[in-house]
Amino acid sequence: MIYKFVDLLQERLGKPLPGAEAQRIMMPKESTEARFDLNRNDVRLGGVMVLLYPKNNEIYLPLTQRHDYRGTHGGQVSFPGGKWEEGDPDLEFTALRETYEEIGVQQSDVQVIGRLTDLYIPPSNFRVSPVVGYIDKYPEFNIDPYEVEALIEVPLSMLVKETTLKRKDILVRGNYRLNAPFFDIEGKVVWGATAMMLSELVALVREMELNL
Predict the structure, then answer these.
(1) Are 206 and 193 in contact (CB under 8 A)?
(2) N or C, which end of the chain is more exposed by having fewer CB within 10 Å?
(3) Is residue 121 within 8 Å of 193, Cβ to Cβ?
(4) What pLDDT, in 10s, does the model give residues 88-101?
């Protein structure tokens, strides 16, 4: 099943993407259009990995629960990934390197098939590139407990269900509330930039009308 899905998705990723139109569906009410300004020169660069893999005859992807540290994204759920570093030849390499460092998936096991649309994250001043890849077997996860509190394995079929999408007020860094849509993944609240990038993936899956 994963091979057929990957072939179709790779073909679709090579065409114009829905971009901001799909991302905006999961944008917090209080957010601004600055999120879609991809021409800024004063940003930090990051790469995250949308990693597809087979499990229980379904297609899954991993998300990570961050530790609840005193930072912009403390406690949030995100894709494996991180900031571009000197020595990284490109953001694809960044995403693969960070995925290995955080959840232990070997770079050589991942086949990259394209990218989703970049997204600017104003609070941390990052422009993030979501790299899409797949592994044709169940990954040998090896979680770095310093960087990752928990691994969250998400079936793609769950993400595309309308009932998974919800909305509520979310307390951010203990200071203020945002009214935000989110994906309810078995009680985990997936919102913000991660949800916005996932929203584009969901839009593509629905467009391809695949029975997951």
Answers:
(1) no
(2) N
(3) yes
(4) 999 999 999 999 99
Whether the CA torsion 182, 49, 37, 175 is positive or negative: it is: positive
Q: 13, 40, 8, 16: which is closest to 208 by C-alpha?
A: 8
State pLDDT tens for residues 138-168. Answer: 999 999 999 899 999 999 999 999 999 999 9
pLDDT of residue 173: 65
H or E, element range at 190: strand 188-190
Phi and psi of 93, rounded to 5°? -65, -40
Question: How far does CA 54 lie from the centroid of its chain?
Answer: 17
d(CA 212, CA 209): 9
**164: nearest Cα among 58, 17, 25:** 25
The residue with tokens 């096991």 is: 109
pLDDT(73) > 80? no
2-156+193-205, what's its fold? Answer: Nucleoside Triphosphate Pyrophosphohydrolase (3.90.79)
Domain borders along the chain are 2-156+193-205
Is residue 150 helix, strand or coil?
strand
Q: How far is CA 93 from the centre of its chain?
A: 16
Q: Check whether 75 has a pLDDT greater than 90.
A: no
Q: 42-61 b/e with 16+ CB inside 10 Å = b?
A: ebebbbbbbbbbbeeeebbb
Total Cβ atoms within 10 A of residue 18: 16
